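Render this sequence as a predicted structure.
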Amino acid sequence: MPLFTVDETLCRRDGLCVAVCPASLVRRDGPEGLPYPLAGKEAHCIRCGHCVAVCPTGALRHSLLPFEDFPPIDRTKALPPEALAHHLRTRRSIRNFKPDTVPRETFAAILDSARHAPSGHNHQPVAWTILEGRPAVAELLSHVAAWMREEVQARTDLSRTLGLAGAARAVDKGKDVVTRGAPHVVFAHVPARGITPLTDAVIAATWFEIVAHAHGVGTCFAGYLMFALEHRPELVRLLGIPEGRVVPAALLAGTPAYRYRRMVPRDEARVAFLPGLAGGEERGHEFPA
């Protein structure tokens, strides 16, 4: 079966599908030629869908991607830059949660958007595990607290760097500085090996955070949890995540206990525009170490 077919009556011969294919699998002979797939290279297709999505007349049909999964873009729903900036600036890292669990339907809606996050070679390696309910989260917290105490007792460099002694004491006194009373923890996990699995997971988790904010769900990257999972791999297995997969990103999640009323300041962006390569010369950029 060919990688794609083209309806000759609809095709404008504009070459857009040829131009956007990242693997150069779409060809045509001459400016008026009909697009055709490069023979014998079907395995090189990364299923990005660019060829179908760019066609203004819907002339191209991809054999691996059903056309009904390509809804038309509604330009009237595009966010103005000011609205998008407002959404991003009003997102907060939430550390105070209501005890109620988030409906699974809400998580499904968030993930339906987050699944469109970019990934290396469009591998889409990210899968999700969501701890549901405070008892499950508290059980994980007990394992993480045990790990922290072991690091402190062993006087490891990591315990000093992360201040685990203070965190462990706080947990022992009933102050949850690890999971912050969240009713959920969301884990983005990927194969340990791949094209760019670690980056893909962090990007997907960031998309999850941004979309969750639109659904009224608060999130916060769970630093202590991520360190624990990295240094205590058996905790990953306790979550039911298969062998060979790692967790580069974990998010606390739930309904925020408080409503923030104002946006907060951040440092100005630090950027250098280079008209050419530095060639080993110092350019005097004042970036922090």
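Summary. The two ends are 55 Å apart (CA to CA). The CA atoms of residues 189 and 246 lie 5 Å apart.
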